[in-house]
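Lab notebook, design round three. We kept the backbone fixed and only want residue identities now. Task for the bench partner: fill in a sequence for the structure below.
Input structure tokens:
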């Protein structure tokens, strides 16, 4: 439990600091003043001045922050003030944090591909993979598998004490058991369990029995560094695309049904999932952290007040109008947006805690 909490906060710290370092690096390159780079959040533990920037070390290790000179819009005199910069320069600083989170995801994924990461396999790749598993990817509702208690994420160790190497072998073995139940030995998050299930015949395929599961074969494959870089870039693009599509589905659901998806998790839910990922191994932690980094990037670029995307929207509006936005008005809008986000975080956290006490995450994550 303590290890899980420490790893969760370590991942959070790295993701947020990488994001803030992106802002810091871009501002420095564009010669915009950076008043403070905070590691963690106040109260302050210690600080040191270096090249005009205060580097502070704070008690709350929940990430970090960057304070730019003139970021509130009230300093329009000094040439290194953020407020007097051209729109494109401010835009670069604002999107640099998002860009750094994507770069971090790429680095983590590339590192993972070098040391070995779990990937989906076809039968031709099994020979060169390690830790090969046949994973339950989907369980049909009211199927023999569902009734027997088989869950998504279970790894098939053996059927009737026979170890089978491929999905085809598993499917063929199940298909031939039309009259007798099968004893499945499964690995569920490191725990070996035995389940008995009776395959059933499908009306459209009367001579082939099924359990009602979709299977995925996975294994750990490592690549030379030059291939790992390509695989890391490719995986970053694919994951970003998938998360964008997931966000689209989320927003459509909110608009059409006005309901928050049941499996949407906040900080507590992510912490619970972190514990499960840690149990799977270091390669899975790298993938998980890269996934969170991409999520953080995409959330921050949303055009909502207080987020980088919301601030970028004001820069775009200023460029179109060719007139600076009133600093006080913009500050009020961002403060309202920040308050809304904090309320949302509290509500989601409360829901996570309630679901944790009710066993919801045990059902979703197998915790």
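Proposed sequence:
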């Amino acid at each position: 439990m303590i290890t899980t909490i420490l790893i969760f906060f370590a991942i959070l710290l790295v993701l947020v600091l990488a994001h803030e370092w992106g802002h810091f690096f871009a501002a420095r390159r564009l010669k915009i003043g950076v008043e403070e780079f905070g590691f963690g959040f106040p109260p302050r533990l210690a600080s040191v001045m270096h090249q005009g920037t205060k580097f502070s070390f704070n008690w709350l290790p929940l990430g970090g922050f960057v304070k730019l000179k003139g970021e509130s819009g009230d300093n329009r005199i000094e040439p290194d003030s953020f407020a007097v910069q051209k729109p494109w320069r401010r835009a670069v600083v604002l999107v640099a944090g998002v860009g750094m989170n994507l770069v971090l995801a790429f680095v983590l994924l590339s590192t993972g591909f070098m040391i070995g990461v779990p990937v989906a396999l076809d039968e031709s790749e099994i020979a060169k993979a390690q830790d090969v598993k046949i994973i339950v990817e989907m369980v049909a509702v009211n199927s023999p598998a569902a009734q027997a208690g088989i869950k998504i994420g279970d790894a098939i160790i053996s059927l009737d004490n026979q170890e089978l190497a491929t999905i085809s072998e598993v499917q063929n073995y199940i298909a031939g058991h039309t009259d007798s139940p099968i004893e499945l030995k499964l690995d569920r998050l490191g725990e070996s369990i035995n389940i008995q299930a009776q395959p059933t015949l499908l009306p459209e395929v009367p001579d082939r029995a099924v359990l009602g599961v979709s299977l995925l074969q996975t294994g750990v494959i490592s690549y030379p560094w030059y291939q790992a870089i390509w695989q890391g870039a490719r995986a970053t693009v694919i994951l970003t695309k998938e998360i964008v599509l997931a966000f689209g589905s989320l927003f459509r659901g909110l608009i059409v049904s006005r309901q928050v998806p049941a499996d949407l998790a906040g900080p507590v839910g992510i912490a619970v999932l972190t514990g499960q990922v840690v149990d799977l191994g270091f390669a899975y932690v790298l993938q998980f952290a890269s996934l969170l980094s991409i999520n953080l990037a995409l959330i921050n670029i949303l055009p909502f007040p207080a987020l980088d995307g919301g601030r970028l929207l004001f820069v775009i509006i200023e460029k179109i109008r060719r007139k600076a936005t009133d600093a006080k008005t913009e500050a009020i809008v961002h403060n309202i947006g920040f308050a809304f986000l904090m309320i949302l975080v509290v509500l989601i956290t409360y829901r996570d805690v309630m679901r944790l006490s009710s066993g919801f995450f045990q059902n979703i994550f197998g915790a």
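Keep this in mind before ordering anything: The beta strands are 34-50, 53-68, 117-120, 130-139, 155-159, 182-188, 191-197, 200-202, 205-210, 213-221.
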